[in-house]
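This entry is listed below:
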Amino acid sequence: MTPAEALESRRSVRAFLPTPVPRETVERILSLAARAPSGTNMQPWNVHVVAGRAKEALCDAVLAAFDAGDAGEPEWQYYPDPFFEPYLSRRRKIGWDLYGLLGIGRGDKARMHAQHGRNFRFFDAPVGMIVTIHRDLKIGSWLDLGIFLGGLCTAARGEGLHSCLQAAWAPYHRVLRDHLPIPGTHTVVCGVALGHEDAAAPENALRTEREPVSGFATFHGL
């Protein structure tokens, strides 16, 4: 597909088919993503790819901690506290749109917990990734890493695959370190689910809204 088609069709898929993804396909996606620009070509991204038994063992351990009430220990803060507009309304809308598709009502904490726990199965994707960055790098390198992740998602579409970036993994870095050789010098940034979309899953009918260009861009002299 064209770059425009890949970008337009990219979305966060939250239910995958068990169809295997060959290692060479994953390597090709990562190689394309690694063409991302980075300050002075520092290339600050690090990726642990898991599949098969390695993925299952990792998922079992993190999900057990989550179900036991362990909220993890965040090393960094993703969201503002408190939320403010317009970000609060956008966050609420996607949450209730997703729960509406799944038939999860307000106050149904058990089903909310179960749905959040699906993060720790990589939403049943056959391939999972844990992305890290050296903890001494600064905000510029985090921006570079974000470009890499965007490229990864776009490259996946070029292979006919879908993905989901998952900040939910980051607080469980201690459990992850029991299963993956993550250096103490590195911070866990996110997980990535990768595979073929389960088009029959109701949650995959979710389509998020985007602000028009006029809502975020101001033109000067053009």
